[in-house]
Specification:
Length: about 260
Amino acid sequence: MEEMPIQDMPQEMSDKVCVITGGAGSIGLASARRFYDAGAKIMLVDLSDDNLATAKAGFGDPERVEICQADVADAEQTQNYVAETVDKWGKFDVLFANAGFSGTSAPVTTYPDEIFDQVMAVNVRGSFLACKYALPKMNDGGSIIITSSIMGVTARPGSIAYITSKHAVIGLMRGVAKESAPRNIRVNVLAPGPVDNAFQLEIEERASKASGTNVTEMLNQWISLGRHAQPEEIANTAYFLASDQSSFSTGGVFMADGGMHI
């Protein structure tokens, strides 16, 4: 059977309101386009005004896409992007806490204290604040997705802050899932492996320089499918978790890593 083009698919998320942090990055933006194609209204949240403006310009209907600049680790700015979403469209249905910061590459004994704190602030505190302030403004039956990583279920030398943060958000997800279940709000983690994007490339270039090896080639050898993911492939898993297709899935860690962790 011939596959139906995305633009011809039923509008499964018609009138659903979705908030995506890290919305101007590759995974956030690919997910936004996937949700948008299914009929959703999108609030893109990111640290860069310029990147947000560029991202919004790529959508055909500006009335279904709004942008809000915010530091996700700041409680007041988190409350602001939640309030702007509600002011625009009312209560929302999907929160995708996707903003992330990789930190630097260094062994634990020399890892800079201030960078460790920055990584934890964006990845963990940002996800906590998103859940804290979004939940009261979400419709019952909605979905929260938190981005972890392959590094949330495994580890490697030299990335202690990132690894710690990505393990931590799995615990955060499980706690929030328990608390949200009476409202039928599902809470899950999306754990990508290496993705072919600028965020991952920066990590790999840094690690390659530190180790003297080609980390990109090494990762492709570790990934069972033998390659990095495309952002759109991660977005497909985010779509599953955001949509009613995942109606009986909560408290889970959904791997999108090409088999790297097995």
